[in-house]
Amino acid sequence: MTPLRPLRSTIALAAFLASAVPALAAPIPLSELSRYINSLTKAQTNFVQVNADGSQSSGMLYISRPGRARFEYAPPDKTLVIAGGGSVAIFDGKSNQPPEQYPLRRTPLNLVLAPKVDFGQAKMVVGQREVEGTTRVLAQDPEHPEYGTIELVFSPDPTTLRAWIITDEAGNQTEVKLGPLAQAESFPISLFDIGLQKSKR
């Protein structure tokens, strides 16, 4: 028979160790994440982009929800990416050729720029986890999961978007790390005018 004193000591030690380990923070509820994104109408921030091949670039991001965003890459990279008018255009700073252009709805970025974001929608969120004090939400277009996924990274208190990782149709990943988001009153509509940018090149 096991002596009672050693058994009690073991139970007491286990209880002490359990209380000494900090409890994992609960992931931010999807309803709160939806509220936050929908409240993020106009904002700007600096960003660092980590590409699938490990290369990095940086620049300024302008967001004007719904449907508009502008990524201005810092020199020597003169790339410009504009989302507006239902399209995404990628302007190559080293070329005078027309930009590559795609329907916004076919990109995972549309899940952030949509008029109304509802992470509670069936089959939209396919994963949610807490990692080092942040909540990570993996989302996709419920009707077209083949368009790829976007993993959004949020910090709590107050809820803030910190980064996202886009996985495209081919499985390539691009991470965009955001600086502090500064809310703005308005932006010139020309910032998101793909046609106007074409005429300047």
Name a few traits of the molecule.
18% helix; disordered N terminus; outer membrane lipoprotein receptor (LolB), chain A; twelve-stranded antiparallel β-sheet; alpha+beta; 201 residues
What does this entry show, briefly?
This protein is an alpha+beta fold.
What is the topological layout?
Layout: H1 4-20, H2 30-39, E1 42-50, E2 56-64, E3 68-73, E4 80-84, E5 87-91, E6 100-103, H3 110-113, E7 125-131, E8 134-140, E9 149-155, E10 160-167, E11 173-178, E12 182-183, H4 194-199
Antiparallel strand pairs: 1-2, 1-11, 1-12, 2-3, 3-4, 4-5, 5-6, 7-8, 8-9, 9-10, 10-11
Provide a descriptive summary of the structure in words.
The protein is α+β, with helices and mostly antiparallel strands. The protein has one domain: outer membrane lipoprotein receptor (LolB), chain A (Clam), CATH 2.50.20.10. Helices cover 18% and strands 37% of the residues. It has four helices and twelve strands, in the order H-H-E-E-E-E-E-E-H-E-E-E-E-E-E-H. Strands 1, 2, 3, 4, 5, 6, 7, 8, 9, 10, 11 and 12 form a twelve-stranded antiparallel β-sheet that branches. A hairpin with a 4-residue loop joins strand 9 (149-155) and strand 10.
Low-confidence stretches: 1-23
Q: Number of domains in the coordinates?
A: 1
Contiguous helical run count: 4
- From the spread of the alpha carbons, the general shape counts as globular
Sheet with the most strands, sense and barrel status: 12 strands, antiparallel
Mean pLDDT: 86
> First CA to last CA: what distance?
87 Å
Radius of gyration: 22 Å
Strand-residue fraction? 35-45%
CATH H-tier superfamily: Lipoprotein localisation LolA/LolB/LppX
Helix-strand category: alpha+beta
Q: What fold name stands as the CATH topology? A: outer membrane lipoprotein receptor (LolB), chain A
H/E topology pattern:
HHEEEEEEHEEEEEEH
Question: Percentage of helical residues?
Answer: 10-25%
